[in-house]
Design a protein that fits this description.
three-stranded mixed sheet, globular, 5 helices, DNA-binding, 137 residues, Arc Repressor Mutant, subunit A, alpha+beta, 26% strand, homodimer
DNA sequence: GTAAATTTGCAACAATGATGCGAAAATTTA
DNA sequence: TAAATTTTCGCATCATTGTTGCAAATTTAC
């Protein structure tokens, strides 16, 4: 059984063309993908709405996660830890390359704790670092 | 001379109705504002395009700055340090309250440095913390 | 106060995202 | 494996958000 099928079944999602193709895209890409990237790379074989709904279903099942960016674009990424073990992933730092504008999950870099002013209770923290990635250096 | 006028003149912006009103909104609000907030609070006295362009001009002059959020919305905030002294503001942490969903600049909390994997060169880092703010606790 | 420069508002457009619904798939059942 | 059931797909439609060009109005400079 192919890897994509396994992942879908494990997450109780029916195996359809769009889900297979899009999941494969995530497995092949080393960075995060925006909706537009996916539409381009699938060669317009799927309806825009289908892509949205496919991504939604992946997010709901916790297979992919969203990455906040400085500009107003949503990016999705598959976390290595997630798809292999299914366990809750640590809160890791995301890196966006200013050169190739690729978004990369730094799975091994955890978001540091910060001391907040009195009265503020933290629940969750996100950190995004911009700079030059290892490929563009 | 009113405070808003001063700020505008200091930043070489002509003093117009929309700029005055929107600047006043920022001075009054203790949190960050989204475009939609501004449209609501100005009571639709200005065209949508004018609001966009006003915000753009403020960003260009460095009077306000953008805050990234987990959802896909741009928020703008006036930094106390900025508008008083005009000097380049430190990279501070932003806090978003899960209760009142207000976005607050923690001007005194600087974004910590993180150790990146080999090959990655950081240039800029953003940190957004979610949780409960001092007013909602 | 008038000329020059800037800003505004309107119209139009593009991109992104959501929803309802019948048709087409995938899954389950027998 | 074929029928029944459930899920998903694709189309049409709509809402929101943001941009651009241009003429009219406003602001600034002289």
């Amino acid at each position: 059984m192919k890897q994509v099928e396994e992942i879908l079944k494990k997450n109780h999602l029916s195996v359809t063309g769009s889900r297979q193709k899009i999941m494969q895209l995530f497995l092949n890409s080393n960075g995060a993908l925006a909706h537009a990237d996916i539409e381009k790379k699938t060669g317009e074989s799927f309806d825009r709405v289908t892509v949205y709904r496919t991504l939604q279903s992946f997010v709901e099942k916790g297979i992919i996660h969203l990455i906040p960016t400085r500009d107003n674009s949503i990016k999705y990424a598959l976390c290595k830890d997630d798809c292999e073990a299914g366990h809750h992933h640590d809160n890791h730092v995301h890196f966006i390359c200013d050169e190739c504008s690729k978004t990369i999950c730094l799975d091994d870099v955890t978001v540091p704790q910060v001391k907040l002013p009195k009265g503020f209770t933290p629940q969750h923290a996100e950190m995004v670092v911009n700079g030059i990635c290892e490929e563009c250096k």
